[in-house]
Design brief:
- With about 100 residues, the protein is mostly helical.
- Helices cover about 80% and strands about 0% of the residues.
- Helix 1 crosses helix 3.
- The radius of gyration is 29 Å and the shape is rod-shaped.
């Protein structure tokens, strides 16, 4: 009969992955200390290395998205204002017979 699967917190995974990245001890030693399978340590290390660039680029990406939304709102406001002005000028030109 199989035992219940263990769920590890992200902080725990990060700690183990960082220790594996430092390469002070072997993956087998780290796995034995934390009572996990060595393949799991290797997988977490790989995930950490793949997602590392995102950690430093997330701030810029978020700022770009915020700037985009702000500019989009301004442009929508300007379009609305111009639509009102065009309608006003159409009515006035009809009244003046132009």
């Amino acid at each position: 009969m199989k035992g219940k699967r263990r769920r590890h917190e992200p902080e725990f995974k990060a700690r183990v992955a960082l220790e594996a990245i430092k390469e002070i001890r072997t993956i087998q030693e780290i796995a034995k200390e934390y009572d996990i399978h060595p393949v799991q340590v290797s997988d977490w290390k790989k995930q950490m290395l793949e997602s590392a660039p995102d950690a430093f680029g997330a701030g810029r990406k978020k700022a770009k998205e915020e700037n985009f939304e702000k500019e989009r709102e301004q442009l929508h406001g300007k379009i609305g204002q111009q639509a009102v002005e065009i309608d006003f000028l159409r009515k006035k030109s009809k009244q003046l017979g132009l």
